[in-house]
Predict the 3D structure of the following.
Amino acid sequence: MAALANDSLEYILVHTPQLQGIYAGLGGTFATLVDGCLRKNILPGFYENGMIKRAELKDNKLVLVLSEKKTDADLLSLLDVAIRNVGGFPSQNQAADAWMVEVNCEIEK
């Protein structure tokens, strides 16, 4: 079986206020995640209504605000499940042209 070439992978950097994760996936992984969040208003793998408070795409960055207060570890864990559900996987590599996901939770006032 032929190994995947690095140029057939895309990289996704996930940022919470305090933590970061790096993921890789075949081309279209980020687009599938964006589609779930923007068009369907769901985080892939989770089908609770109202989980996403706000989602928007700015250039190469998906900005997510999730409902309810969560720790940074919880936010990273939720995105880990979502990215794995669209075919991504954790990676140690980071590309200069990586897609980004910035995730935070709703802050109670």
Remarks:
- The radius of gyration is 14 Å.
- The beta strands are 9-15, 20-26, 52-58, 61-66, 89-90, 99-105.
- The helical segments are 29-38, 72-85.
- The first strand starts at residue 9 and ends at 15.
